[in-house]
Amino acid sequence: MDLRVLVPTSVVRDAADRRAATYKLGWFARSAAIYGVSDLVIFPDPAGAAPDDREFVTTVLRYATTPPYLRKEAFGRRDELSAVGVLPPLRLPTWTGSESKDSGSIREGIVTEVGADGRVRVNCGLQHPISLVVADGDPPAKGERVTVRISSREPVRAKLLDEEPPGPRVSERSLSSALNADDAGLRIATSRLGHPLTIGLLEGPLAVRHRMPVTLAFGSPDRGLVEICDSLGIDATIPDVSRPIEAPIEAVPDRPFDLWLNTIPDQQSEVVRTEEAIIASLACLHLKE
C-alpha cells in the first residue's frame, strides 16, 4: 500500500518539554516504519504552533528516519536534537544490514566526496566510505542521500542504485499543496466527527486503498483537523455520517478530502493523541481483503 501521512507543526504543543516532544515524534517515525509509510509530510499550522515548532518537528523526524550510522555526518550537533536518546529504534532491514544470498543487501548512504573521474565516495555504514562509479547522468551532490546495493563485504563490491533510499521520507508542504498533489490518491481526513470505520467499509468502498495511493491527514491533540482546516481556509465540511457509503470511494478534484473517517469509533477517552490515532488508523487500513 502506497501511504502518505500528513501531520501539523502543532502536533507537539501538548508535550511537557523537549524530551517528551522528541519521544512523541519518535513514535510517529516508528509507526511509519512499521506500516511502510512512504512519506511523512509536515504542514504548517500557524494558529496552533510556536514559531520554532516547524524546525523542531521536521529536524527530529528527519533524524529519526535516518540510519544511525549516517546521523552524525548528516546532522552534526543541533539544539533540536538535544533529547534524541529517547527515540525508539526503527530497525529497518536496510539499516541492520539484513543480507540476501541472491542479490546482496540494500543500504542507504550519504555522499562524502564527488570526484572528477565519474566516481563518488559514499558512507553507507561500512568501516570506511567506499568509492563507487556513477553509471549514467550527473553524479549525486556531496551530502546527498543515495541507495547502495552491497553484494560483497570482503572484498567490498557495491553499486549505486537509481532509486529512492528506503524508509519514510520526511518533507514540509502546505496542507493544500499536499492534498492537491498529483500522487495524493485517496485523501482521508481523520476526525472523531467522521464516518465510523467498520469492517464493511474496509471490505467495500475502502477496498480501493489497495489499488491507489492513500493520503491520511491528522490533527493535533489541542486542535483537531476541522479546526486546523478552518484556520487555513480549507473546506472542512463533513458529510452526513448517518448515511452509509455504498459506492466505491473516488478522488474528487473539487474538494480537499474524499472521506472524513473516524478510525476509533466509540472512543472512551476525551482526547486521542495523534501518535495513538496514527497507529490505530494505519493498523485498520492494513487489514487484508
Question: What can you see in these coordinates?
Answer:
The chain contains eight helices and eleven strands. It folds into two domains: 3-89 and 181-285, Alpha/beta knot; 93-161, OB fold (Dihydrolipoamide Acetyltransferase, E2P). The two termini are 13 Å apart. The chain is of the alpha/beta class and 289 residues long. The protein has helices at 18-34, 53-64, 68-75, 93-96, 175-179, 199-203, 225-232, 274-285, and strands at 3-8, 39-43, 105-114, 119-123, 130-133, 145-153, 156-161, 169-172, 186-196, 214-217, 259-262. It is globular, with a radius of gyration of 21 Å. The protein has a six-stranded parallel β-sheet. The protein has a five-stranded antiparallel β-sheet with strand order 5-4-3-6-7.
In brief, what are we looking at here?
Strand 1, helix 1 and strand 2 (39-43) form a beta-alpha-beta unit.
Write the layout of secondary structure elements.
Layout: E1 3-8, H1 18-34, E2 39-43, H2 53-64, H3 68-75, H4 93-96, E3 105-114, E4 119-123, E5 130-133, E6 145-153, E7 156-161, E8 169-172, H5 175-179, E9 186-196, H6 199-203, E10 214-217, H7 225-232, E11 259-262, H8 274-285
Parallel strand pairs: 1-2, 1-10, 2-8, 9-10, 9-11
Antiparallel strand pairs: 3-4, 3-6, 4-5, 6-7
Helix pairs in contact: 1-2, 1-8
